[in-house]
Amino acid sequence: MPKFVTFNDLNRFRAPLDEAKMVKGASESRTGKTVFLAHSTKDEKYLPSVISILENHGGRVYVDKDDERLPQSPSRDTAEILRSTIKGCRRFVSFVTENSKDSRWVPWELGLADGEKGSSPVGLFPAATSALDQTWSEQEYLGFYSRIVWGTIEGWKEPGWMVWDHTKNSATGLRKWLTQ
Questions:
Q1: CA angle, 110 then 74 then 18, to 5°
Q2: Are 61 and 100 contacting, i.e. CB atoms less than 8 angstroms apart?
Q3: Per CATH, which fold does 5-179 belong to?
Q4: Under 8 Å CB-to-CB from 83, ≥6 apart: which residues?
Q5: Tens digit of pLDDT for each residue in 82-98?
Q6: What are the start-end ranges of the E strands in 39-131?
Q7: Structure confidence by residue, pLDDT tens digits, 62-82
Q8: How is residue 154 annotated by DSSP?
């Protein structure tokens, strides 16, 4: 059965990571990135874990946190840089928590990615206090997208990271989804 990741799960991934280096690396290089990772600034402490999971499965992640191209204050230039970066990445992943609904940028980026790419290349990476907590899904439009989860479904021999289409109860391995 697929399981949503918890904050405790993500904290366990953080221990061996060089967090500053990981986030800086995801922010620096604009070429060759394959995954745009949207997130609320309130959830930045979990970015190293999410980046690690995605990169360990073949993604080359971009986050805007320390991107030096971005102006200090959001502007049209900010929007254009984000727009072109989303367009240039093969996949779009939105790290979704209960904080996402308060973000001004996450819904905009998600809508932009959907409009540019359609829903198949877009995935949600939900996280909450408990694997059963779905307060992150209060925005009804989040139901349109597949979710990055851990576990097994029928036909899977071993548990693993997957992109789960909850409407069809089918899944693709995360590595395959990120690299196809």
A1: 70
A2: no
A3: Rossmann fold (3.40.50)
A4: 112
A5: 999 999 999 999 999 99
A6: 61-62, 91-96, 122-128
A7: 998 877 888 888 889 989 989
A8: T
